[in-house]
Write a structure and sequence with these properties.
With about 190 residues, the chain is mainly beta. Helix content is about 5%, strand content about 20%. Strands 3-2-6-7-9-8 form a 6-stranded mixed sheet, with no helix packed on it. It has a two-stranded antiparallel ribbon with strand order 1-10. Strands 4-5 form a two-stranded antiparallel ribbon. The structure holds zinc ion (2 copies). The site of one zinc ion has 7 residues, from β4.
Amino acid sequence: MRVTDTQVACEAAARPDVAEEYQNYCVECSISYIPEGQTSTFVIPMEPVMRENIEPRIGRGLPAGISFNGLRLDQSAPVDAILSAYTIAAFDDCGGHVNPHVGYHTHIVTDCQEAVESIEGETSIIGIAMDGFPILQPLSAADAKATELDECNGHFAEGIGYHYHAGEPASNKILPCHKGHTIKPERRP
Ligand SMILES: [Zn+2]
Ligand SMILES: [Zn+2]
């Protein structure tokens, strides 16, 4: 098995246009490659406002949301790029890994995200979406409420209001989209 084992190799392999010599690789980027003391700032509206059209920014510099314990809940893992270069950046037990651009992030919701109890009949809240609506743990497919979720995996419930349910881990989609206004991310250098 071939694994990237230096920072240079990680950076060459952890991008959509993988350098030819790093095709057919397991991409392993160490948290030690991220400069110490690096911080990330996320701006989330405190009072979410619904948009008329769906917000298309997930995956254009904007994550799906942030968990209460500080995990970046990211866009879907890029299956097309993975399959075209035969590179895979394996997940740890939390469905997360490091890349040199955003640092540590997760692509699925597991029990690594600290959960806060919500209301009777709903799953626990694990964090907040970039439009300010809460993200709850996935609904099981057997739950009747799963059929009433909208295109962004959200619905309304008395007592908690509009909220999202993260997709099941196998769906490779924490959130498909945002229903509310998000704040445009700063351009990356
Ligand atoms: Zn990733
Ligand atoms: Zn719900």
